[in-house]
Target: Polysaccharide deacetylase family protein
Amino acid sequence: MKKLFIPILCFWALQGYSQTQTFQIKTEILKWPDGKKAAISMTYDDGTLNQFKVALPIMEELGMRGTFYINTGEIPGEKNEAKFIGRSPEIILAETEYFPTSQANIFERAGLIRFLDMPNAVSFHDRSGAAYEQGRKTEAYRILDEGFAQARAMGVNRLTPPKIIDGPMLGWEELRKFAGNGHEFGVHTISHPRLAVLDEENLIYELEKCAEDIERELGKKYLFSAECPFGTENERVMEYALEMFPATRNRMPEPYMEEFNRSSSFDPTKDFGKEYIQWQRGPLSKTSPELMKSWVDDILTRDDTWLVLVFHGIEGIGWEAIPEERIRTYFEYIASKSQDIWVGTFAEVTKYMRQRMASRVDMEVSSESIKVNLTTELDPYWYDQALTLKTYIPFGWEKIFVVQDGQESQLKFQEDTSGKFVQYTYLPNKGPLILKSI
Model:
């Protein structure tokens, strides 16, 4: 693990003291910005209408920013439509009558069935994919065989892009406006498939073409994080996704972080021996306000926890839609804890943690100044989050100014059991910063 502070012992002969006094001068990179106790990210899946018409305005009213993982295939003006890539559908359909589904052909068949122009086509795909991921492969094969039997009986001979979003979707012009207000957007595929049961070509197409649309319409910086649908942690899918994007909400394989996904239980009193905890919770339509508030209360009992909230439907639109009144009350409760909780987008929190763990602090100390230099080898294109530093200083200093890039401002002294200190923000690799005694 990288060292997060550099202690330097200095001896100071201070006026008014008969003997030399010893002080420890050190700089720490704080775990969270401004010394807060915890972090929360509000994330949304799918990009349904009321996420933007209802939830987003409440967040903006409270000074919060969210992360929206969007399916691009149904956005008006999209360029990349969902499609099946592979052998002739007619040949595959004919084969299903004589050859049962097995490991040898499940990816091809699961990829095709969701495009068949018949009722429940997407449901057959989703149910078989869920069974496959859960290790119930025989059931997954049976579900697909049932679906293709229905297709043959109906004489299906046409493919159509699957519709998976409830109601209308906003266009790119409105999404650009929200991005300009500081909200994060990320990849959620074109059409929300079970990626674990797609073959390589179809899996990559869903991720790459969604990313292509987002980059063209919003910019490359919105390709920092992705969420593969259904919260999958399938190893094959994760291998592709983590190669394509700097971060995924599905999995963050950081050695210094313990992850708890939406189906996991988390004991806030336990010491996990890691620098950070990521705890995902997915509020549903029947999740009680008391339970939702308890998640916030739990993270405030520690100093290492990042609560990642996963929302879907809002106010009648989308899967497991949560009423507007409950959303407002919950967000106001989180805002009431703003002294101790940092609400940041998924990208912002990820960047802060990674930069903190990968940055080096060097100091040069004299009787009248401390020169601090913060450096990291992380890619500056992606990693642009300012960090909060805390420097302990000699008790004899009465006023202190921070000087960087020719700008000078006074800092406020604070004190704890370790001594007298100042806090300030610093973007790595921007050159040295001077703390100057006056």
Summary: The chain has eleven helices and 19 strands. The chain has a mean pLDDT of 93.
